[in-house]
Amino acid sequence: MNRIPTTTYFPYFIFTLLLLLAPFLATARATNQITAVNTAPASGPNEKAKFDSDYVQQYISSERAFRPHLGLVKQFYKDRDFQLAWFDDNELVPQADKLMEAINKANKEGLSPKDYQIKNLREMFREFAALPASDRTKQQKKQELDMALTASYFNYASDFYKGAVDPHSVAAIEWEVKRNRIKLNKALETILQERESTYPFYEFEALHEGYQRLRQALVQYRDIQQRGGWSTVIGEGIVKPNDTARVVVDVRKRLLPQQNVNQPDSALFIYDAQVVRAVADFQNRHGLVVDSVLGPQTYKALNVSVDERIDQIVLNMERWRWLPKDLDPNGEDERYIIVNIPAYRVSVMENGEERMRMKAIVGETMHSTPVFSHQLQYLMFAPYWNVPNSIVESDIKPHLQQNRNWLRSRDMEMVTTFGPNARRVPVSRVNWNTMTQYNFDYRIRQRPGPNNSLGRVKFMFPNEFAVYLHDTPADHLFNERDRDFSHGCVRVERPADLATYLLQDKPGWNRSRVLNAMDSKTQQRVDLEESVPVYLVYFTTWVEDDGTVHFRDDLYGHDNALAQQLF
């Protein structure tokens, strides 16, 4: 009997095995190719085609700009059972055009369109539409275009709705405001009319009116830029109303460009009522002392270029994108307090309207007021001022080294601890020559009264910064232009009005009772019926209700830190 030689048996066996495995190997190779199509047949004429998660992973990972949004893309398609999103049969839905238009006009948002034109979406659609239905690659083109639209949306929407810079990941940007947690995958469902929302995502519109107003200001200032900007004002010392000076002509050109100031007319050198009004308005919009006097500060502000003002607008639009979409997520009346630090201003907002506005005093540069948000929970009437140990060492210790009665003269006392169990102890127990904030075993506080540094009421939102809003006995400081005098806390100009407003829902509390509590000698805590969000923010430009654009100095250098990341 003839036998097959043993030397040929194994190759023959392997060859047979490879033939059997060939279809499976081919399938495995196909799933590793980005262009491979894994489209399930539709069960009906209106059912959308599908693809699997492997394809999503491969497509997004192949494009660097899309990679940060892989999780969002996966979640979006998973929620829709991996059905294509942007097609109705073989036609793009109208929202695709809106997305492409929004990306092409990203410059109006202070963003760069080229950052989001990763794929030429219109060209991809033209290529898809040009293929006959019988072409075997048409379904693949459809799939690629759907994925490109989704990835492009998340790439653009992430910057537009949440910010091009993540303020929480850059140490130089001091922004501890509550994170903006927009779920962009749900926003896209809203855009595609698959989900209802109270927010205008479907229009690719911004969520905050303050942002929308700055966007219109950006158009205005870019128009000025296109027309060559504005002329320089060469300072000429102090010029008062009715004075005659050459610089008045420059000011006319700068603030009254509609006037014809090229004609030889000596009257143009007179600082008349029309120019005085224009200067006063300019001073008001730029946070200067409104005295209508031309001087160094006014000249300096006049000579900030239009390019710098445009950058300032763009920086502050970015900050608006960082804010939560809902500034009062718990309340039906959308009530919150916003402190704009560079503006030295406190505003009480309700249902989108400013119900109250007052001046504020904020931290000096060495003790800057932090940028953060919290919930205002209670008021403390006739408060003790519990002096931080750092202030005891830097400010109080030198006085006690010279005069052991200094605390008594300031209505202050040294105690064992803050709170109701505090016991007074004599200052003689401390060696003030060796005392530091770290070895000080006691506490110093100022008793309630008209001279208390916190005034007669403080507004509490306990936080890691030990910062809050409060009254002050130094009311005259509210008349200053630059009001950065505190150690970080925010002093408010109208504390009784603010307290009355916050307690309006508290049974038995009216303005009369608020004033009595403020004038008391006994500390009293009053909890709010419902906590109120408070935002301590940093906007160096904004637009008022009447359309006027305001600018302020970069008090703490936060604009400069953001510019290094954004531009």
From TrEMBL:
* Coiled-coil segments: none
Spell out the catalytic residues.
H470 (proton donor/acceptor), C489 (nucleophile)
| CDD domains to which the protein is assigned, alphabetical | YkuD_like
Superkingdom of origin organism:
Bacteria
Q: In which pathway is this protein known to take part?
A: Cell wall biogenesis; peptidoglycan biosynthesis
The positions making up the signal sequence are 1-28
**Sequence ranges assigned to domain L,D-TPase catalytic in this UniProt record:** 335-517
Keywords, comma-separated and alphabetical: Cell shape, Cell wall biogenesis/degradation, Peptidoglycan synthesis, Signal, Transferase
Gene3D superfamilies, A to Z: L,D-transpeptidase catalytic domain-like, PGBD-like superfamily/PGBD
The answer to whether UniProt assigns keyword Transferase to this entry is yes
Q: Mind telling me which PANTHER family this protein's record contains?
A: BLR7131 PROTEIN, L,D-TRANSPEPTIDASE HI_1667-RELATED
Q: Which family does it belong to?
A: Belongs to the YkuD family.
- The entry's protein name is Murein L,D-transpeptidase
Organism of provenance: Pontibacter toksunensis
